Amino acid sequence: MKIEAAVVRKEGGTFGIEQLQLAEPKSDEVVVKIAGVGVCHTDLVCRDQYFPVPLPCVFGHEGSGVVEHVGSAVTRVKAGDHVVLSFSSCQRCPSCIAGKPAYCHQLYQHNFLGTRTDGSSAWSADGTVMHGHFFAQSSFGTYALASERNTVKVKQEAPLWLLGPLGCGVQTGAGAVINSLRPKAGSSLAVFGAGTVGLSAVMAARLCGCATIVAVDPIGSRRDLALELGATHVIDPKVENPVERIMALTQGGVMCSVECTGLPTVVRQAVESLTLTGICGIMGVSRLGTEMKLDMNSILFGRAVRGIIEGDSVPHEFIPRLIDLYLQGRFPFDKLVTPFPFTEIQRAVEASEQGQVIKAVLKMP
Fold first, then answer.
1. CA geometry: angle at 186 spanning 246 and 172, to 5°?
2. How far is CA 173 from CA 58, 193, 202, 211, 306, in A?
3. Is residue 147 helix, strand or coil?
4. Is the CB of residue 310 less than 8 Å from the CB of residue 175?
């Protein structure tokens, strides 16, 4: 079928909308007519080759839409279903079997190859094969091709165009708190970086009953939104030392911290803001090979650091739970979203990079 998709043809290049051909789905694949798709930091760092995803490529991995048709072996969804597209996994390795698909032993092969795992691609332009299958969806297009594994059926009551960010950024931040760190009611948590991931963590911390929720970000509008969404305190790191301020607020440090910037200096601040036996979850994406420095004695006194991918989520379970919370008014992630027409994808990308919006979502005509 003919589709329109945003293509990046060179490292750091623009997202240009082109007409492409999308092949028929294989037996375990699903064709989805996209209603909306979020612009995620991971799309941009892969455009910039932090990870060596081959170019030219169709990115996009926070898609939501309506199932158009399915392969012969698909049973989980059918034509007409509303779905959110998330990350893919092999479903067979020890991590997947243990219910931890975000740590799939073949996570890279299923999400970053630019092809199916067998090396084929469903995208082409004038007979020339294009790279796609980004996060097994490549949803920066009018249609996406996903696998049954990463296609999550959702309620039709929810506004479909809005739901795509639940597939990555929102579930990453919310899941880091709810699934990974699991703070006790009345405890304390600090969020470093109040973007989509960080503000989702703020909302989740409020759901968990944290008594002290600190958000650290240099952008005033994001600090204001953090307070609206549940933060009890905000810090401008350009004006105050976050570690010193958190220590003063909490009389010794927070029990949990989440680092959402990918900056080594901020990682250290997030760790040094912990109380004894506290835990820091790292979610920010950095270029391959980036290193960080920590005080070994700080870690020695019971503090812990762990990486968190996709909020330790099982998407088929967690995304519907977040939608229920949203419909109940308890998880207002829509306050993070600014819509853009799909035709203005480059403007949406630039607004995201310049900090003018938190989560740009491209709406299809």
1. 75
2. 25, 11, 8, 18, 14
3. strand
4. yes
Report strand pairing: 233-235 vs 254-259: unpaired
Residue type, 29: E
pLDDT computed for residue 288 by the predictor: 87
Res. 241 pLDDT band, cuts 50 70 90: very high
Which one, of 101, 87, 163, 100, lies nearest residue 325 by Cα? 163
Assign 68 to helix, strand or coil. strand
Q: What value does the mean pLDDT take over residues 151-176?
A: 98
- Annotate 181-235 with three-state secondary structure: HCCCCCCEEEEECCCHHHHHHHHHHHHHCCCEEEEECCCHHHHHHHHHHCCCEEE
**pLDDT tier, 127 (very low <50, low <70, confident <90, very high otherwise):** confident
| Range 248-273 burial, b when 16+ CB lie within 10 A, else e | ebbeebbbbbbbbbbbbebbbbbbbb
In the block, tokens 């975000």 appear at 102
Classify residue 91 as exposed, middle or buried by CB count within 10 Å of its CB (0-12, 13-18, 19+): middle
Task: Kindly report the backbone phi and psi dihedral angles of residue 153, in degrees, each rounded to the nearest multiple of 5, phi listed first.
Answer: -70, 135
Strand partners of residue 212? 188
The answer to whether 133 touches 280, Cβ cutoff 8 Å, is no
362 DSSP β-pair partners: 37, 340
Reading the block at residue 187, the tokens are 């405890």
Local structure of 73: helix, strand or coil:
coil
The torsion angle over the Cα atoms of residues 205, 209, 210 and 214, rounded to 10 degrees, is 50
Per-residue pLDDT, 240: 96
- The first and second tokens of residue 141, run together, are 């297009």
Mean pLDDT of 193-203: 98
User: Bridge partners of 341?
Assistant: 363
